[in-house]
Amino acid sequence: MWTINRGLRTIAGIFILMSIFLSIIHSRYWLLFTAFIGINLFQSGFTNWCGMMQILKRVGLREGELEGVLFDVTRCNRQGVTEVKS
């Protein structure tokens, strides 16, 4: 089953490879698209928000079991809770 994170990594990889290929055969300006993807991945690491993940949720992909658990632990830690009940 495809999860949001798996879909995101797949799409990012396809876009990066596609932009590198297009920069070789068409124009070096396609590398700006590669930089755009990198900047988005970088900011999502700090903000924990990614527009593509929102799109993938709307398409119907779901969070994996581990993804949901990690999100709950992060949310609890931000609220000052030190224990997470199963």
Kindly summarize this structure in a few lines.
With 86 residues, the protein is mainly alpha-helical.
Write the layout of secondary structure elements.
Elements: H1 4-25, H2 31-47, H3 51-59, H4 65-78
List the quaternary state of the chains. single chain
Uncertain segments of ≥5 residues (pLDDT<50)?
none
Secondary structure: helix percent: over 70%
Give the N-terminus to C-terminus distance in angstroms: 23 Å
Q: Estimate the global geometry from the Cα principal axes.
A: globular
Annotation field: number of helices? 4
Strand tally? 0
- Rounded to an integer in angstroms, the radius of gyration calculated over CA atoms is 17 Å
> What is the N-to-C succession of helices and strands?
HHHH
Structural class: mainly alpha
Task: Write down the domain tally.
Answer: 1
Fraction of residues in β-strands: under 5%
Please give a handful of descriptors for the protein shown.
86 residues, mainly alpha
Question: Can you describe this structure?
Answer:
The chain is mainly alpha-helical and 86 residues long. It has one domain (4-78). 72% of the residues lie in helices and 0% in strands. The protein is built from 4 helices and no strands. The chain has helices spanning 4-25, 31-47, 51-59, 65-78. The mean pLDDT is 85.
